[in-house]
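Before relying on records like the one below, remember that each one covers exactly one chain. Contacts with other chains, cofactors or solvent are not represented anywhere in the record.
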Amino acid sequence: MKRMIISYGCLAVAIWSCSTLKYAANHEYPAADDGYTPQGRLEEVIYEPTEDGPSQRRMLVYLPDGYDTSGKDYPVLYLLHGAKGNETSWINKGHILRDIDSLTRTGEMEETIVVFPNTNQYDDDKDFGKSRLKNMFESLFEMDGAVETAFMEDVVGTTDSMYRTIPDRTCRAIAGLSMGGLQTIRISAAFPDGFDYIGVFSPVIRTIVKHGKHSDFYRNLYGRLEVLFSDPPAEYIIMIGRNDILEPRIGSFICHLKRKGYGFDFYESSGGHSWYNWENYCRFFMKTLWRFSGQR
């Protein structure tokens, strides 16, 4: 698997000098609109995926300030975007780099590598279109389990191979919003040894019936949850707004977790399906990271 990294201070200009790929300055990835200059370093990583779709994919990796000189290994948080988003959404819309730096500076969060993968399904290189944003219809009906099936090998494996991570469940976290919340539920259940901290924000609960090579990924959720909670994660948090359009649909999932006696936290805030809530949820979640794992 071939991998490439390019470092840059902000998202305003993203030029790839690779002979086969080139991103121009007027590409659709704008700088974070609050003008914040992060303390750490943001890198874009291009890797060759193992699942069906484009020949190369892209993710962003945020390295803590001092990563190059510290010599130490770091825990990793994986943040998944929602429908109509891509790997830049948490940065450009959620202003999450500001929150990461603030929590790290105050000691409320341990220094952590944060990875922003693109979890959209694309048919091929043309469909990928340099990590293009997808519309709601595409996001809902084209997600077929391919990206999720290969998540541990492609995203986690690439991160572990390129950076000084602590490659252990106790030092990995995953969280996502809306459609990314659905993927977080499913990925963490499919890979019970993958993540010790799981954050689910305003999740889509029910999926469109899937067909094809990877359709089994979206089946047998309750059976996989039983395996996951047989050796429960250190933290499993579900957060949603009382006025969220998805709030009425989360009840059956919560009831199942309660009925089975699984350990989880559920928080209901004011507001709806919005970045204001998701940023606050993520800030809260990041404060819990690495607090309960025995190895930290």
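DSSP finds eleven helices and nine strands in the chain.
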